Amino acid sequence: MTEHVSDISFDRAFVEELSDDEAQRVERHVAQCARCRERQSYLAEDRAAFLKAAPSFQAYRAARGPAKKRSLWWPLAAAACVLLASSQVLFPRALTRIKGSEQIGFYIKRGAQVTRGLPDQVVKPGDVLRFTYSCSEPKYFALMGRDAQSAVLFYPVAGQATKLPKAADEPFGFGIEVDAQPGAEHIYALFCTEPVALSPIVSTLDRTAKLEAPHSCVVRELQLRKVVP
Amino acid sequence: MKRAGADVEALYRKHAPGAFRRARCILRSDADAHEVVHDLYVWLLERPEQYAEHADLTGYMYKAVTHACLNRLRNQRTRSRLLQEESALSRLGPAATASLQPEESAALLSELARMPDTLASVAIYYYVDGMTHDEIALLLDCSPRHVGSLVARLQGWSLRECTS
What we know:
The complex is a heterodimer.
Chain A: H1 7-14, H2 20-32, H3 34-53, H4 57-64, H5 69-86, E1 103-110, E2 113-116, E3 121-123, E4 128-135, E5 139-146, E6 151-155, E7 162-164, E8 167-171, E9 176-177, E10 183-192, H6 199-208, E11 217-226
Parallel strand pairs in A: 3-11
Antiparallel strand pairs in A: 1-2, 1-4, 4-8, 4-9, 5-6, 5-7, 5-10, 10-11
Helix pairs in contact in A: 1-3, 2-3
Chain B: H1 5-27, H2 30-46, H3 49-52, H4 57-73, H5 76-84, H6 94-99, H7 102-111, H8 117-128, H9 133-140, H10 144-163
Helix pairs in contact in B: 1-2, 1-4, 2-4, 4-8, 7-10, 8-10, 9-10
């Protein structure tokens, strides 16, 4: 190994995810490279310090405290869902009337207020959006957005579209904070009958501002208008 | 059927230290990094099938943290803080200091939020994590040659932005 050992190789070594050959190559290189030895020591110490401060996720969660922005947001959205279920007069039931069972919608949290999102909704920086989905049978799902500058994958965080169970207006367990880039943002939801790799789709969307989804996917689109006061 | 929370505990002990280190390095804020790690693990707790399917968990966590940090960087408040910060290099990996002049690295990190997603990810993997083209190609599921062209594009971006 002539190149220095990268952090990802050290991280893989720490959790024993390197192959035997690769582990031996890392070991041999570190034995003769002062810079990599120093880096390995730093990473090991950093790792130990982190786990000493919070040895389990339970402890880590407790240390972060309950008053997180997203955990406050969730009960509000849930309450809104209950309202929706009990009285469809308060909010439009769906954003758009599209043939087919696959639908997405969203709620907006602005300050303490939660409202249902509407087509061509105006949103402001700091608003938090919580998306919902509906489908009559399990589907592989992905959610992404494209504004004037770039595309971003919202869900899942990486890899392939995630298989979701059938649901009606099911809220996702995450919120998306609106940034300060003004103008239109197109939100695309993919409902697919088979797993699809998302990286090429997001790259194309990023480069061309056009969504090229596989034939196995139904696409639902929303448009938001981001306004900076 | 969901897997038990114990699996997330194992994932935490193995990968949370590295996730925090990288998030702190990219965002240059302990508080922001903790929030990224916390939110990511809460998300994984709710959706264990996300990581259960992956053999390369380290690679998966690298991608997930990169994605979460880029989303956060696109938040205007985070960007403003980074642009005002002077000690941009204090927590960068060794590759950044070896490949770029200090002022170029600082400017590059501040530009991440404006870059297309793939290019920003490559910037993080290459400059912050010090990965080789082969390692980046493995994460992005593309050829090392394509990574090479992205790095060249990145260096062009860096020089252009730094001199403007």
